[in-house]
Amino acid sequence: MRSEVLVIARPGRLPHLDYRGGIAARSTLPDTVHLLSTLATPLGGDTISVRVVVEPEARLVLRSVSATLALPGGDHTTSHSRFELEVEGSLDMDLEPTVVAADSRHLSTVTLQVGDVGQIRLRERAQIGRCHESGQGFWSDSLHADLCDGPLLRHHIEMGADAEIVSPRAYIGELRYPADAVDWPLQTAATIVELPAGGLLATWQGDRLP
After folding, report:
1. Which of 14, 60, 76, 87 could form an SS bridge with 118, CB 3.0 to 4.6 Å?
2. DSSP tag of 62
3. CB atoms < 10 A from the CB of 1, how many?
């Protein structure tokens, strides 16, 4: 199954929403959109594609109703999610975690383009395995972020059965732009990196998501 979602945030108006497949979008506040599953997805072989456009002077808060559970399909074990973000205004994107069940593989890619006055908070969370699950899944995430005048960040992480380092099994990553160290709340367990082009990347890894 292929699921596609388009969200366009415009100043002074409700977001424009278009979707098909197993993912729907609902406006829950004037500047807030929640994604929700209408069918069991992603199974192996499924692709979820989400495009978000935030126009100048617009603000969008993007959330999800529940965690994404990646399961093996009948003929395939690998599913994909692709997020394309174009931010000229302000975007706060913090979806519920992706949980990769045993014998499943989920590959995630995020491409981000931030405009001259764009602002972004992007938080990603993933967990290998459900509670007390003995098998091992695999998850990878690639983040490709650019500003108008050059690159902001290239980041890639893998966890699980096929990763070179199979432990840890849980990950939290958060990108903020623009930001500096004084903007970050006290999180002693996180590794915080100030990016050369501005902004911060904070990452945390462990066995289970808090």
Report:
1. 87
2. E
3. 16
Residue 165, class by beta-carbon neighbours within 10 Å (0-12 exposed, 13-18 middle, 19+ buried)? exposed
pTM over 0.90: yes
Q: With 60 as the cut, is the pLDDT of residue 186 above it? A: no
CA 51 centroid distance within chain: 12
Residue 82 CA, chain-centre distance (Å), reads 9
The secondary structure of residue 43, as a DSSP letter, is B
Report the percent of the chain where pLDDT is more than 70.
92
Residue 71 carries which DSSP code? Answer: B
Element (H, E) at 170: strand 170-177
Question: Which residues, including other chains, have CB under 8 Å from residue 6's CB and lie 6 or more apart?
Answer: 16, 17, 18, 19, 51, 53
